[in-house]
């Protein structure tokens, strides 16, 4: 018997991959989603019936307390957040409430209902922002560059603080960018692979992007959720960098994505200053040595495999859309 897991943010990219992993491990999986007037469970297609979905919201403390009383989880994965960096400038208060203070609400609910619940907090490489050291490790100082990054720094430290104040089993995964065919369409990788698929299939002419020189340490979401689970199986809680240790620019991502379908990016990519950010994170590169040594975690999917997988899945999806006439 593996236990009972509760995932906040079950409707997001990582929620879908983590739910699948936990089901495979024999967990009873419960997911929290906020109320929406439109369908948001699309990423759970194929295994939604194996998960119990509950309504709740990181903005509503009582909904969290009630949910923990009802589900009685042994492990809680706090993946819910306003996670799109540009939106954090247009909605900084909402981002602070959800991505920052939301973590305190989850920790308070655990403290009140059952302090033995193990908690994973989805911290982010965006906390390193204007990097103070390369590669970034668990001891690299934070210098966030967006309201999102600032909110994640708050979430990180409140998790550490509740661990130290109340002896909770609460761990931070400092995850670098991780992508997949389930990534939201506004994030740069998926915007590129969706654009490549549409251009190849003749339903789009151009792909407009912002800063092509930004560099990221990109991995596969399916690999990264395994690290989340491993973090809650240790004897002691802790904080871990999860990254591939390899860095590529947005331009390189484009080159491989267009190359997959025998097109040249120069013929199709344009620059639109609307996609520049008020303050940019120019470069991120993680050192996952601690996760490798203490968790035995290794990424399986290479950068080239990731880009190819995303392009191929987007081509299949756009072909289906064309057939349906949408
Ligand atoms: P995502 O696809 O944007 O999913 C975010 C989830 O949070 C969605 O299920 C969303 O629900 C939910 N949510 C937003 N506001 C909420 C609220 N007020 N109450 C309850 N749920 C709410 O993000 P992701 O890529 O899966 O990332 C998962 C987590 O890891 C996030 O915390 C993100 O910040 C963090 N992270 C991601 C990366 C990455 O590269 N993917 C790296 C480091 C850290 P709706 O479907 O209703 O919008
Ligand atoms: O941008 C540049 C952009 O939006 C990556 C989130 O999951 O990872 C993600 O945050 C880079 C930036 O991800 C476009 O300026 C160029 O330098 O895909 P992104 P992000 O901001 O790194 C971290 C780890 C998280 O925690 C976040 O939740 O790409 N870029 N042109 C562009 N970015 C976008 N979105 N769109 C463009 O057209």
Please state the second-level CATH architecture of the largest domain. 3-Layer(aba) Sandwich
Helix content: 40-55%
Number of helices: 10
What is the N-to-C succession of helices and strands?
Answer: EHEEHEHHEHEEHEEEHEEHEHH
Number of domains: 2
Instruction: List low-confidence stretches.
Output: none
Rounded to the nearest angstrom, the distance between the terminal CA atoms is 45 Å
Q: How would you write the strand order of the largest sheet?
A: 3-2-1-4-5-6-11
| Main sheet characteristics | 7 strands, parallel
CATH class of the largest domain reads Alpha Beta
What class would the helix/strand composition place it in? Answer: alpha/beta
Mean pLDDT: 98
Strand content: 15-25%
Per CATH, the superfamily of the largest domain is: NAD(P)-binding Rossmann-like Domain
Oligomer: single chain
> How many β-strands, per DSSP?
13
Shape: globular
Query: Ligands in the structure?
Result: NADP nicotinamide-adenine-dinucleotide phosphate, ligand F7E
